[in-house]
Amino acid sequence: MYLSDFLFWGAFATLSITAVLFALIAVKTKDSVYAAISLGFVGSSVAGIIALIGFGYLAVFHLIIYVGAAVTFMTFSVLMLKEKPGTIRGIWPLALLNSILLGVVIFLVVSRVPAGHSEALPGTLEIAEALLAKYWFPMLLITLSLATVIIEGIVVARGGER
Fold first, then answer.
1. Which has the closest alpha carbon to 9: 53, 45, 46?
2. Which domain holds residue 146?
3. Is 59 in the same domain as 108?
């Protein structure tokens, strides 16, 4: 077994275990802020697993959508409800382990891409052209939906109707 295979399976197993542990913390905790943070670590662990099996773009979108947007939405919801934060001890070693494993995953994913095949991957220009030329209508709907959510969030944060 090669060192990269050992790192691959070790990272896969450890990311799986940390995803399950953070999911248990998210379910068992009574504090919504720590539940949101734990769900963020679950999402980052799952994104690491997705990147390990070879779907780098899907892992990036998983991080952006599920980890970024969902955790931000949950945190803002908790802040708008003015819930007092509690404390959870012992979560930082798991968080550090998760961060180190994501670094290993990024190393493994980058090291598996051959140097000569970088032109086969689409660049940002090709992705932007595809999104704005071919998929312009879904992009318009997503933009309008996000603008509506932001306006609703501002109205709720200011205290409702005026």
1. 53
2. 122-162
3. yes
